[in-house]
Structure formats: structure tokens, C-alpha cells
Write a structure and sequence with these properties.
The protein is α+β, with helices and mostly antiparallel strands and 331 residues long. It has two domains: 151 residues, Roll (Pnp Oxidase, Chain A); 131 residues, Arc Repressor Mutant, subunit A, CATH 1.10.10.10. Helix content is 34%, strand content 22%. The strands form three sheets. It has a seven-stranded antiparallel beta sheet with strand order 3-2-6-7-8-5-4. Strands 1-9-10 form a three-stranded antiparallel beta sheet. A hairpin with a 6-residue loop joins strand 12 and strand 13. Helix 9 crosses helix 10. The termini are far apart.
Length: 331
């Protein structure tokens, strides 16, 4: 006798895409549900299938519908997936639908879409299996949203060895290319190497870059706040470093008791040039990795940052300003 819950968890080990299947009821009402039971059946003729639970409220609509559309959701369409998985709300509110082969809701912004005509319906235990002939399809370069082990996921290709001579790797060596610190550190320094020329031209050190970058996001910080925000770099930003930036005309220091630092026009110009160079390096990396891998990389890096965060201040979250505090952010 199978344990239904454990059996469901075992099935959840198989990663699937996430789709929204749409149709129109007899009265013209648009209907849509989230499903991850989609699969291909045949290339010649082009056919696909998906299944719907017998107790689903929308089952009568899909059983009566001659046409339906399957949308493979892109990674940024998780909110749509959640909306169409719930009952009791206007699922199509605010969704600007595209025109399709038939008068069936066609959702934009997906990784791929298949417009289908019902070919067969089969009894599948507690589900009904719908097989459709594909009348039209389209796809984009948007990476797909995945679902595995009960949660959303992103697709990423497995990487080969970083080492130039992987066969020479010593299995028992304490330091290897699989060490996370090595991989994160090497990626960071190789990325920064791409715009070090611009840093040099602007006569900016790494600590200078950290401070100017910080103040380009959140201007008007005290020396203590600057040091706290930059602490993750391992660089101790003290008053001497800040005074140097003031003396070079890149920062201004307010005269209030709680002195705060803001970018000057020269400081803002310098950091914008450096960040433009960094953005150029990023674009090259995106082109080489591909959009899907970059989305997965950003997601994993954010998770790694959250998992290792010792409690640093949140740079991009709104924070109240201290009393007596100099010019507002964005000066």
C-alpha cells in the first residue's frame, strides 16, 4: 500500500516546467489553470498532452472545449503561476492578452506557447488526460520557470571543470576548484579585472570604488554607516579614507554634528563611468553564459548571500534617516 504523501514527494523529485492552460467557457468566459503535467507526445503530427484532476472546478469547461492553449511560463512569471493556481479571483485581471489562432486566451511574455485543438481525452485514474494537436506555437529566449521538490526552481546547465588540467587534480588535496570560496573569489576578481583600467584612469582604489558605489545608491551617510555598509569587503573604511576622497573633490562632508558624506558632481561622474564599464563587462558575461544561466546565477548568489549574511545593513531597503542629518539621498 502506497503512502499517498510519500508517493507525491517521490514524484516531486522529477523537475517539470510550469504551465498555464487556458480555454473559453461556452458563455465566453476565459478560464485558466496552473499545471505541471504538460508533456510532448508526437512531432509528426505535432501533439502534446496535459492532465487535469477530476475534482477540478474547471474540468467541465476543458471537457467541452475544442481548443485550448498551453503557456510554458518564464522564470519571472511566478506571480501568474500562483494566481492561476488559486480559486475565487479574476485570474485574467490586468493581463493584456495576445490574439491567437482561435478565440482562446493567449498570455504574453512566456517561454513558449502552444495553441491546440483537442484530439483525444483519456481516463487517467483521478485525472483526465487531454491530448491536443498543435495548430501553432511560438517561443522566446526567456528562461523557463521550473518546479521541483515542492518549490519553484531555475534551470542552469552543469559546468565543466575550471582547471586547465582537470586530470591532474589531486583527489585528497584540501584546496580544490570545487571550494566555494575559491569559485566565488575567482569569479569576483576576474569580473573586476574587466574594468580595472577605468578604475586606474580615474585614480580610484578598491576602497574608493566601494565607497563611491555605496553613496551612488544611498547618499548622505555618516562615517560609521559607510564603514558598516562596506564591512563585507573586509576593508576598514575609516575617517582617513573618507577625508582623502573629500580632499580630492569626490565627496563633500556636511558640517552638522552628525557629519554625513555626499557625492560631489565630480564624484558622481567618476563612479558613473566606472559603473558603466562594469555594466559592459556584465553584458559580455551575459552574452557568453546566456540569459537562463545568468538568471540562475543571480538567484544562487542571492541565496548564498542570505545564507552567509552576518547581519549587515540592507543597502536597497528603505531606512529612516538620523536626526540632524545633512542633505537628502540623491543630491
Amino acid at each position: 500500500m502506497f503512502d499517498p504523501r510519500d508517493f507525491r514527494q517521490a514524484l516531486g523529485m522529477f523537475a517539470t516546467g510550469v504551465t498555464i492552460v487556458t480555454a473559453r467557457a461556452a458563455d465566453g468566459t476565459p478560464v485558466g489553470i496552473t499545471a505541471n503535467s504538460f508533456n510532448s507526445v508526437s512531432l509528426q503530427p505535432p501533439m502534446v498532452l496535459w492532465s487535469l484532476a477530476r475534482n477540478a472546478r474547471s474540468l467541465p469547461v476543458f471537457e467541452a472545449a475544442e481548443f485550448w492553449n498551453v503557456h510554458i511560463l518564464a522564470n519571472d512569471q511566478e506571480p501568474l503561476s500562483n494566481r492561476f493556481a488559486r480559486a475565487g479571483e479574476d485570474k485574467f485581471a490586468g493581463v493584456a492578452l495576445d490574439a491567437g489562432e482561435r478565440d482562446v486566451p493567449l498570455i504574453p511574455g512566456c517561454s513558449a506557447r502552444f495553441q491546440c485543438r483537442t484530439a483525444f481525452r483519456y481516463d487517467g485514474g483521478d485525472h483526465i488526460i487531454f491530448v491536443g494537436e498543435v495548430l501553432a506555437y511560438d517561443r522566446s529566449e526567456r528562461p523557463p520557470l521550473l518546479y521541483v521538490t515542492g518549490g519553484y526552481a531555475l534551470a542552469a546547465r552543469k559546468a565543466g571543470a575550471v582547471s586547465t588540467e582537470p586530470e591532474a587534480t589531486i583527489p585528497e588535496a584540501p584546496y580544490s576548484e570545487d571550494l566555494l570560496g575559491y569559485l566565488l573569489g575567482r569569479a569576483h576578481f576576474q569580473f573586476m579585472a574587466g574594468f580595472r583600467r577605468t578604475l586606474s584612469e580615474r585614480q580610484l582604489s578598491d576602497p574608493d570604488f566601494f565607497v563611491l558605489s555605496l553613496l551612488s545608491v544611498r547618499d548622505g551617510l555618516s562615517a560609521a554607516e559607510v564603514a558598516e555598509h562596506v564591512a563585507y569587503t573586509g576593508v576598514d573604511i575609516g575617517s582617513v579614507a573618507l577625508r582623502s576622497l573629500v580632499d580630492r573633490g569626490l565627496l563633500e562632508r556636511s558640517l552638522a554634528p552628525d557629519a554625513r558624506y555626499v557625492l560631489t558632481a565630480a564624484g558622481r561622474d567618476a563612479i558613473l563611468h566606472v559603473l558603466a564599464a562594469a555594466k559592459s563587462v556584465e553584458e559580455v558575461l551575459i552574452d557568453r553564459l546566456g540569459v537562463a544561466e545568468v538568471v540562475a546565477l543571480r538567484n544562487l548568489l542571492k541565496r548564498a548571500i542570505l545564507a552567509s549574511d552576518p547581519g549587515l545593513p540592507k543597502l536597497w531597503s528603505a531606512q529612516p534617516r538620523a536626526a540632524g542629518g545633512g542633505p537628502p539621498p540623491g543630491r
